[in-house]
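Task card 7
Instruction: Convert sequence to C-alpha cells.
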Amino acid sequence: MALFIWNDSYSVNIKTIDDQHKVLIGLINDLHDSMKVGKSKEVLGPILDELVNYTVYHFGHEERLFSSNGYPDSSTHKATHAKLIQQVKDIKNDFDSGKTVLSMEVMSFLKDWLGNHIMGTDKKYTSFLNGKGIY
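Output:
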C-alpha cells in the first residue's frame, strides 16, 4: 500500500505543478515500497538520487513562475525551497555514507516534508498565479 496518496486537496490548481507533485509523491512511494521489501542500497540509492534531482527541478520550475510573474512572496518561498533541498540532500548523503538507513521515520519525514510544503507554502501562491492566468 502506498505511503502517500494524492487527492484533490493537494491540488494547487496549476496543472504542471500538480503533475510534478504527483511525480514527487510517486518517488516517495517507490522509495517506501522498495524499503519495505528490503531492496538493496543499489536500488534505494538511485531512487533517492532521482528524488533529489526531481526536487531541484520542480522547485526551479516554481521559482521561474514566481520570477516571470512577480510573485511577491518569492524570496521567502525560495528560502523554504533551499532548506527543503538541503534536507533531502542530507538524507541522501547520510544514506550513501551509511550514517542512516531508510526507516519508517525517514519515510514519514519525507511524506510530511512534501505534504506540509504543498498544503502550507505552495497553496499560498495559487490565487496569485491563477490571477495571472496560470492554471
